[in-house]
Specification:
By secondary structure, this protein is of the alpha/beta class. The protein has two domains: 8-46 and 293-391, Alpha-Beta Complex (Aspartate Aminotransferase, domain 1); 50-288, Aspartate Aminotransferase, domain 2, CATH 3.40.640.10. The chain contains 13 helices and twelve strands. Strands 2-8-7-6-5-3-4 form a seven-stranded mixed beta sheet, with helices on both faces. Strands 9-12-11 form a three-stranded antiparallel beta sheet. Strands 1-10 form a two-stranded parallel ribbon. Helix 3 runs parallel beside helix 10, helix 4 (104-115) packs across helix 9 and helix 11 runs parallel beside helix 13. The longest helix has 23 residues, at 292-314.
Length: 396
């Protein structure tokens, strides 16, 4: 019998829709069902051979096997700064305005510890990526969910934020192209967000993992620092997981306001060391080497998107064609409106097809499900066929 008590902060993390779905997937596999997992945005595509070769070579170099402190990340930070300036046209100082991360989620989850005091508000998108809320909860902050709705192009309405909340707010978190809704935000929106955060003395955090997964080459996704080139209030997070198919390598970086970078570095120093030096060398190769693989990844997701959207429409499930990301964000058909968790649980139990329920991304996500395009087109069509059978059986 235990005689200790856990911290109160863990209570807000005890209920997790995605953990429940993971258990449902495990039970489906144990029952003998062939599962098709469309619930996680974990790429099935491979990292580029030239990146793997650099990492492989590093494994045989014993000088890479020890702890890596901040100064040891200098080459990576220089490469990230050069890449960023070339890509977005905003100068970044690699010494004071870049920080290497063990995946961007490390940064978004730890940054609230550097910004929030107990009871301070963070303004988060609803629906939004779950780790954003988790970081605020661990920091003892309060969450104000900013609803984003289809009629507003899935952009928040800043004027709707209550004055008492703003008085206690310290940070706003945005993320476009958006997971899960697939929405893209124009530069004019970011300029408005920067001005709003200046006026209300808020830190503006932009999580930016899908910057390359935009299907219209004439409308690239803007960086938040293009709206805040002096980096007065902003910090932006990058990952190699989507563009370079390096999710399992856990490598990312932050760029932005020097004071925020310094504060995040202080939190990081208390929690962990840096990523393995060989992986940093591979990430440099990804940034500086051939970029054809990024375009091939984009083409792959575009083809999958078109096949999947067409297949859903053929079975009578009308969904929009997303302009970005590797997801489909779909309203649930009748009679499943506002029953996203039940729909996804029943679907995996009866067909082996796993989706993410919209309710797992926040209150405003209810009524939707998210499909991740992480299988080849023939597997995606097989998943839709199973969904069609499930919907017919439920209607009868």
């Amino acid at each position: 019998m235990t005689t200790f008590q856990l911290a109160n902060r863990i209570q807000s993390l005890s209920r997790n829709v995605f953990a429940d779905m993971d258990r449902a997937k495990t039970l489906a596999k144990l029952s003998g069902l062939e599962t098709i997992d469309l619930s996680l945005g974990s790429s099935d595509l491979a990292a580029s051979p030239h990146v793997i070769e650099v990492i492989q070579d590093a494994l045989h170099d014993p000088t890479t096997h020890g702890y890596l402190l901040h100064q040891g990340t200098q080459d990576f930070r220089k490469a990230a700064a050069q890449w960023y300036t070339s890509r977005f046209g905003v100068f970044v100082n690699p010494e004071t305005e870049v920080l290497s991360l063990i995946g961007s989620q490390e940064g978004t989850a730890h940054l609230p510890l550097a910004i929030l005091n107990e009871g301070d508000f963070a303004l988060l998108l609803d629906p939004g990526y779950p780790s954003h809320a988790g970081g605020v909860a661990l920091a003892g902050g309060q969450i104000y969910p900013m609803p984003i709705k289809e009629e507003n192009d899935f952009l928040p309405i800043f004027e709707d934020i209550p004055t008492p909340v703003l008085a206690q707010a310290k940070m706003m978190v945005l993320s476009y192209p958006h997971n899960p809704t697939t929405a893209i935000a124009p530069l004019a929106f970011f300029e408005k967000a920067v001005q709003f955060c200046r006026e209300h003395q808020l830190v503006l955090v932009h999580d930016f993992p899908y910057f390359d997964i935009v299907f219209d080459s004439n409308s690239p996704a803007p960086s938040i620092l293009q709206a805040d080139p002096n980096k007065d209030v902003s910090i932006e997070f990058y990952t190699f997981s989507k563009s370079y198919n390096m999710g399992g390598f856990r490598i990312g970086f932050a760029v932005g306001n020097a004071e925020l970078i310094k504060a995040l570095r202080q939190i990081k120093a208390a929690v962990d060391f840096n990523q393995y030096r060989g992986i940093l060398q591979g990430a440099i190769a990804a940034l500086q080497g051939p970029q054809e693989s990024v375009q091939e990844t984009l083409k792959t997701y575009q083809k999958r998107r078109d096949v999947f959207v067409d297949a859903l429409r053929r079975i009578g499930w009308e969904v929009p064609t997303p302009a970005a990301t590797l997801y489909i964000w779909a309203k649930l058909p009748h009679p499943w409106e506002n029953r996203s968790v039940e729909f996804c649980t029943r679907l995996i139990q009866e067909t082996g097809v796993a989706l993410s329920p919209g309710a797992g991304f926040g209150k405003s996500g209810e009524g939707y499900v998210r499909f991740a395009l992480v299988h080849e087109p023939d597997v995606l069509e097989k998943a839709v066929a199973r969904i069609a059978t499930f919907l017919k059986l439920e209607q009868n």
